[in-house]
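Protein modeling request. Please complete all fields; requests missing the sequence field cannot be processed.
Requester role: graduate student
Desired output: 3D structure, token encoding
Chains: 1
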Amino acid sequence: MATVIGMPVVQANLKIHKGETFNPILYVCSQQTGLPIDYSAYTGTLQIWADINAVTSIAEYNTSNGGLILGNGTIQINITASQTTAISYTSAYYTLRLTAPDTTVDLFAEGSVIINQK
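Delivered output (118 residues):
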């Protein structure tokens, strides 16, 4: 199993409501100390795939385009209402990878994406 700073990959499903802003904040603390893990010097990418076996992602949100905001103990996904309005699929698969300052890339989270079409 891949790990990020000694942590197992988070298995979590995302439910996005079409036409609404999706911006949950994940709070991340060290399992050893209970203190927040500082990701402010990291970069990250959340990719959405048609399914777990897809080779090309259908959407990408990252720290460069404002789709991910990394901080001291926090990872915020930031998908705007206009971006969720444009979503044409009803279910998918996602991966969230973080890149450390030393360029080590690790899978942080993965799971299903369900789009509520309203």
